[in-house]
């Protein structure tokens, strides 16, 4: 991830918890009980990510239904090709990805991380670790919204210290989700490098964050809503663009 490494939240919101000081990735030790075993590199993400399909995120992606007036801007075949390209780019930029860990941000970042790991395995012939990173308690809008269920964090048993961690999400908007993910990651270990892969970059950044891998750059207005639907969560693969109130993005944050 380039520049300051942070993603999506409300500009008016305060810190995720009173007295919290933002730390760079890896600046803190592991939090007891905060991680589980990473799941395998292939297959759909498990339902243990905590958020129900479409739950938690508003605007950037909702449930598995198509809102009236929305139009498709990224079809299944295009999504597949984009993920294949990103997988190859990760392998090329990390010299075979021998020390790469893919961590998806719930909800839809988790199945995307597993898909990327599966494609990388097809190329290299061995599995790659893929897991999830819950950012619920690190959101900067935490005090402004109703209480929500905690998601699931799953990292390899060996941890992330000294590794290349690729954070995976579906939509990059304001950058506040990535910021929360960096804070969460810093509390479980100290990666050597942190990178960001997103399926869609819709612009309108509010924080100095730039993704390392992008499936599609999608110019949008602030009033438009980007909805990513994935087979593992919603029953189909498609990215929809439509009009909506405000510019809210995924997980309730203005991404």
Which properties best describe this structure?
4 helices, disordered N terminus, 255 residues, alpha/beta
Concise account of the structure shown:
Helices cover 19% and strands 20% of the residues. With 255 residues, it is of the alpha/beta class.
> Helix proportion of residues, in percent?
10-25%
Strand order of the largest sheet: 4-3-6-7-8
Whole-number total of structural domains? 1
Low-confidence stretches: 3-37, 39-63, 246-254
Q: What shape does the CA trace take?
A: globular
The structural class is: alpha/beta
Q: Tell me the distance between the termini.
A: 16 Å
Query: What is the radius of gyration computed over CA atoms, rounded to a whole number of angstroms?
Result: 16 Å
Please count the helical segments.
Answer: 4
The portion of residues forming beta strands comes to 15-25%
H/E series: EEHEHEEEHEEEHE
What name does the CATH topology carry?
Answer: Rossmann fold
Largest sheet: 5 strands, parallel
**Which CATH top level class fits?**
Alpha Beta
CATH architecture: 3-Layer(aba) Sandwich
Mean pLDDT: 79
Number of strands: 10
In words, what does this structure look like?
- By secondary structure, the protein is of the alpha/beta class.
- The chain has one domain: Rossmann fold, CATH 3.40.50.
- Helix content is 19%, strand content 20%.
- The strands form 3 sheets. A 5-stranded parallel beta sheet has the order 4-3-6-7-8, with helices on both faces. The chain has a 3-stranded antiparallel beta sheet with strand order 2-10-9.
- Helix 1 packs across helix 2.
- The N terminus and C terminus are likely disordered.
């Amino acid at each position: 991830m380039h520049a300051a490494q942070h993603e999506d939240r409300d500009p008016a919101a305060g810190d995720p918890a009173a007295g919290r000081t933002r730390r760079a990735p890896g600046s803190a030790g592991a939090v007891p009980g905060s991680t589980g075993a990473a799941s395998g590199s292939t297959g759909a993400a498990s339902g243990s990510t905590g958020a129900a399909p479409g739950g938690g995120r508003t605007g950037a992606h909702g449930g598995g239904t198509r809102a009236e007036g929305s139009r498709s801007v990224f079809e299944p075949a295009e999504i597949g090709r984009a993920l294949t390209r990103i997988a190859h780019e990760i392998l090329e930029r990390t010299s075979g990805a021998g020390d790469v860990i893919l961590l998806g941000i719930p909800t839809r970042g988790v199945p995307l991380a597993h898909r990327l790991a599966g494609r990388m395995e097809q190329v290299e012939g061995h599995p790659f670790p893929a897991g999830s990173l819950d950012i619920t308690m690190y959101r900067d809008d935490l005090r402004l919204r109703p209480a929500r269920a905690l998601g699931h964090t799953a990292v390899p048993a060996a941890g992330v210290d000294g590794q290349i961690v690729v954070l995976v999400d579906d939509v990059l908007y304001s950058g506040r989700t990535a910021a929360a993910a960096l804070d969460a990651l810093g509390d479980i270990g100290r990666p050597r490098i942190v990178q960001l892969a997103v399926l869609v970059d819709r612009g309108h950044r509010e924080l100095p964050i730039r993704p390392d891998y992008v499936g599609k750059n999608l110019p949008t207005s602030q009033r438009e809503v980007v909805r990513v639907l994935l087979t593992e969560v919603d029953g189909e693969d498609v990215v929809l663009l439509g009009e909506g109130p405000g510019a809210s993005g995924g997980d309730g944050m203005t991404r």
